[in-house]
Amino acid sequence: MNRIKFFSTLIACLALVQSANACTGITLNSKDGATIVARTIDWSGTEMNNIYSIVPRGHAQQSLLPDGKTGGLQFISLYGYVGMAVEQPEFVVDGTNEAGLSAALFYFPNYGEYKPYSEADKDISLADFQVVSWILSRFSTIDQVKEAINNVRIINIDPSASTVHWRITEPSGRQVVMEIVDGIPHFYENEIGVLANSPGFQWHMTNLNNYVNLHPGGAGPTDFGPITLRAFGSGSGFLGIPGDFTPPSRFVRAAFFKTYSLEQPTAYDTMQQAFHILNNFDVPLGVQFPVGRAPNNMPSATQWTVATDLKNMTIYYHTMYNRTIRSIDMKNINFATVPFQYHPLDTAKRQTIVPVQID
């Protein structure tokens, strides 16, 4: 795709998805010391070109600018990485580098604000959709990112599009959320291991206090005057947990589901657990639009889900077309020699079904 056509396509996609996104992220730890970062990618306005990129050491990139031309920050990969991208291979929204550092992008409409683009600063201007690629290319720790962030100016290539915020995770399990508000980067330690969209991360953490009554297991029985109230079934301790798909409600559900899920013995078990938890956040396409107004008929607004094992350096994913889990073993990639490449997440947009053999 030529640059002008690509830029037009990207702007159209950004315009569609900024009001129809519902990404949810969780982080789990296993008994054997692995950290699993997982998330959904939810865009209901249009089907994105969903791909994964393999980026070697020494790969050169340059940021796009608001006019659709390259000319922004140039950076060369010190670390190779694998990234899950949309539309173009450089627009990585979730990925991990060979040092084990993970970074991911989540939409953050109406609450973030970047500094306005300035032609005088174009050499240090970095498009927000290329920040994940920049982080994975250049850094191995969170502290390195925090030190370097003030040397770049993060911009929107479409000033009318939503801002985003980021989740950055080390193999140790340390995780921060980076949000740019009033043009200033803010980092928040994310001990709960959950992220959604707007409002800001600190607001979501405060909002959890509204659900202090929730607990795993059952509620009651409770004496109620002359009668006794009893739950209709198991799990009544979660009565009152919000069930809609707004970011505050998804954050609450994700926080409680992951906090009270059983710690698994191995990274592999924890990866599977992450997919099971995130199944609860799979968004049926029709629920985000008025009746009869859905713009397409994709299988789901949740276009793909990814879980990455930062200990064993393996990326797992499934898509709205094929929920068979596929894996990319980063240990088998020589990032010094592998060529830059990218591929669709689905080679065929069809569910893999294995017939049961009857003797």
Describe this structure in words.
By secondary structure, this protein is of the alpha+beta class. It has one domain (3-344): Penicillin V Acylase, Chain A (4-Layer Sandwich), CATH 3.60.60. Helix content is 18%, strand content 29%. The protein contains six helices and 20 strands. A hairpin with a 4-residue loop joins strand 17 and strand 18. The model is unreliable at 1-5 and 15-19 (pLDDT under 50).
- CATH H level: which superfamily? Penicillin V Acylase, Chain A
Structural class: alpha+beta
The main pleated sheet reads as: 8 strands, antiparallel
CATH topology: Penicillin V Acylase, Chain A
Helix content: 10-25%
Number of strands: 20
Q: In what order do the strands lie side by side in the largest sheet? A: 13-12-11-8-7-6-3-20
Q: Whole-number average pLDDT? A: 93
Order of SSEs, N→C?
HEEEEEEEEEHHEEEEEHEEHHEEEE
CATH architecture: 4-Layer Sandwich
The CATH class, by name, is Alpha Beta
Q: Compute the number of helices.
A: 6
Q: What is the CA–CA distance across the termini?
A: 51 Å
Beta-sheet strand percentage?
25-35%
Number of domains: 1
Radius of gyration (Å): 21 Å
Tell me, what's the shape? globular
Short summary:
With 359 residues, the chain is of the alpha+beta class. The protein has one domain (3-344): 4-Layer Sandwich (Penicillin V Acylase, Chain A), CATH 3.60.60.
Draw up the topology in text.
Layout: H1 3-17, E1 25-29, E2 35-42, E3 50-55, E4 60-64, E5 70-76, E6 81-86, E7 92-97, E8 102-107, E9 125-127, H2 131-138, H3 142-148, E10 153-155, E11 164-169, E12 175-181, E13 184-189, E14 194-195, H4 201-207, E15 222-224, E16 227-229, H5 247-260, H6 267-279, E17 302-309, E18 314-319, E19 326-329, E20 341-344
Parallel strand pairs: 9-10
Antiparallel strand pairs: 1-2, 1-14, 2-17, 3-6, 3-20, 4-5, 6-7, 7-8, 8-11, 11-12, 12-13, 15-16, 17-18, 18-19
